[in-house]
Amino acid sequence: MTAPQGLHLKTFTLILIMVSVAPLGDMFLGKGMKRVPPMASWAPAEVFHFFFRAFTSGTIWLGIGLLLTFFVAYLLVLSWADYTYVLPASSISNLLIALLAYFVLHETITPTRWTGVAFICLGVFVVGRTHLRTTEHR
Amino acid sequence: MLTGFIFYLLNVVPGTGGEICMSRAMKTVGEVTDFRPRAILHALGRAMSVPWFWVGITMMATGFFSLLGLLSVANVSFVFPATALSYAVGTLGGKLFLRERVTPQRWFGVLLVCVGVTLVFFGKQ
Fold first, then answer.
1. How does pLDDT run across B55-74, given as a tens digit for each residue?
2. pTM of this prediction?
3. Looking at beta carbons, which residues of chain B come within 8 Å of A33?
4. Mutate to test the interface with A, among B106, B107, B111 (most CBs of A within 10 A)
5. In chain B, N or C: fewer CB atoms in 10 Å?
6. Which ipTM score applies to this complex?
C-alpha cells in the first residue's frame, strides 16, 4: 500500500507546520502559566479563579492562537493520513520544546531527560518510515 | 503532587480520546485536496456537522484545561515529553476504534517513544 508522491508532500508540509507552531504555542502556554499561582484546592470557586487568572494573560492567548493554527493543520492531515502515523510523526516537536525550554525559558534539563527526548525522536523516525495510510478512504 | 497527577491523567486520557474522535470525524469528511482558505473553512464546516467532532472537541478541551493546570505546577521541559505517553494510548485507540493497521515497525516506534517518556519521567529533578 503506497501513497502517491503528492500525498507525501502535502502530509510533510502540514506536519512541518504542526511541528513549527505547536512547540512555540506550548512554550508561550508554559511561560504564561508560570505567572499563575498553582491551584490551592479543587473547590469550584478556586478552579474557576485559577482558569480566570490564566485567561487574563496575553502570553496564554498568544499560545492559544499558535495552537489553533496547529489544530487546523492537524485536522486537515487527519482527513487522509492515519492517526497512528500523524501522532508519533509530529512528536519531533518534543525535541523543539526541550530546546525552547532550555534556551528561552532557561529550564534545567538533565542528561537522562535529553536521552528520553532522543528516544522519542528515534521513535518518530521509525514511525515516519511506515505507510501513512492503512485504512480505506472515501 | 496529587493535583499534578490528576491534571496529567486528565490531559492524557481525554486528550487522546478527543484526538481519536477528531480523526474519526475527519475520515468521515474525506480527504481535503483544496487548501484555499475558503475550501479549508468549508471542510471544517463539514467536520462540524459530524457528531464525533463535538465529542472530540469536548474531550480535547478537557485535555487542554488540564494541560494549563499541569503547566502551573511543572516545567515545560517535563510536561510535554511526559504527555507523549498519549502516543501509546493513541496507537492502541487507533487500532481498536479506527481499525488502523499498526505494523510491527510502527509498534516498535511507539515503544521507543514510551522508553523516551519513561526516561523523561526519571530525569525529573
1. 999 999 999 999 999 998 88
2. 0.81
3. 68, 71-72
4. B106
5. N
6. 0.77
